[in-house]
């Protein structure tokens, strides 16, 4: 099992309100699966994704990624584990604005050890695969939205992750670029990786093999299979 969430809960509270963003959620995802999470804004989708990715510690429950609990690790070890095991793709791209495409793709290599020349070669191969070879020296401001998201996809794949966590990756894209990104995610799962995708996009849901519906932080109904 590549990703296992057991009775995960995460609550946000202030002086006036308490929000159960994720409320006793259990989920398992195996290699080769493409799973989509749907639900209204504020239902806990992004919180679930961040918790699954080792970025947001749950208040209760356990997270297992590739058989390990990232929250049992020190911060430095967890950062390296994330870099090696998980690729993140976000709606807002989160590219470093003053770095080129190549430098942005290479950014995850900072957290892991390895041959600098081999890592650069892999980055260039990914840039070519995503059709960005003629843009590799451009900063994000010089790229279209589709090119920025393809750069983010290449960055997510640099260290050869087993799991991709994608938060609304088609939200800022036109139809053609959205289909391209979804095709890459589907290929990643078909090659034995796993994808957990948070989305409002019906096209993204159609690419998934399993759909989970969240409501008020809980899985709201039986999981839907699109196979």
What does this structure look like?
The protein is α/β, with parallel strands linked by helices. It has a single domain (3-225), classed as P-loop containing nucleotide triphosphate hydrolases (Rossmann fold). It has seven helices and ten strands. The chain has helices at 45-52, 75-85, 101-106, 116-129, 145-157, 175-190, 202-207; strands at residues 3-13, 18-29, 34-38, 60-65, 86-90, 163-167, 194-198, 210-215, 218-219, 224-225. The strands form two sheets. Strands 3, 5, 6, 7, 8, 9 and 10 form a seven-stranded mixed sheet that branches. Helix 6 links the parallel strand 6 (163-167) and strand 7. The chain is globular. 41% of the residues are buried.
Structure described in brief:
This protein is an alpha/beta fold.
Give helix and strand order, one letter per element, not per position. Answer: EEEHEHEHHHEHEHEEE
Q: Unreliable segments (pLDDT under 50, ≥5 consecutive)?
A: none
Structural class: alpha/beta
Span between N and C termini? 20 Å
Quaternary organization: single chain
Into how many domains do the coordinates divide? 1
What is the total tally of β strands? 10
CATH evolutionary superfamily? P-loop containing nucleotide triphosphate hydrolases
Task: Furnish the topology, listing elements before pairings.
Elements: E1 3-13, E2 18-29, E3 34-38, H1 45-52, E4 60-65, H2 75-85, E5 86-90, H3 101-106, H4 116-129, H5 145-157, E6 163-167, H6 175-190, E7 194-198, H7 202-207, E8 210-215, E9 218-219, E10 224-225
Parallel strand pairs: 3-7, 3-8, 5-6, 6-7
Antiparallel strand pairs: 1-2, 1-4, 8-9, 8-10
Helix pairs in contact: 4-5, 5-6
């Amino acid at each position: 099992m590549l990703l296992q969430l057991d009775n995960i809960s995460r609550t946000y509270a202030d002086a006036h309100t308490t929000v159960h963003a994720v409320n006793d959620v259990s989920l398992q995802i195996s290699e080769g699966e493409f799973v989509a999470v749907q639900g209204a804004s504020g239902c806990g989708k992004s919180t679930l994704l961040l918790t699954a990715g080792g970025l947001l510690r749950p208040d209760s429950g356990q997270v297992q990624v590739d058989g390990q609990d990232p929250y049992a690790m020190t911060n430095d070890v967890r950062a390296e584990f994330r870099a090696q095991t998980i690729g993140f793709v976000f709606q807002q791209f989160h590219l470093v604005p003053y770095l080129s495409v190549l430098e942005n793709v290479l950014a995850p290599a900072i957290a892991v050890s390895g041959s600098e020349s081999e890592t650069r070669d892999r980055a260039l191969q990914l840039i070519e695969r995503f059709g960005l070879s003629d843009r590799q020296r451009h900063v994000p401001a010089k790229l279209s939205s589709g090119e920025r998201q393809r750069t983010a996809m290449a960055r997510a794949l640099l260290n050869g992750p087993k799991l991709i966590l994608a938060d609304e990756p088609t939200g800022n894209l036109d139809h053609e670029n959205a289909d391209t990104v979804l095709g890459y995610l589907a290929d990643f799962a078909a090659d034995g990786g796993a994808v957990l995708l948070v989305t409002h996009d019906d096209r993204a849901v159609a690419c998934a093999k399993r759909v989970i519906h969240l409501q008020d932080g809980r899985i709201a109904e039986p999981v839907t299979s699109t196979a």
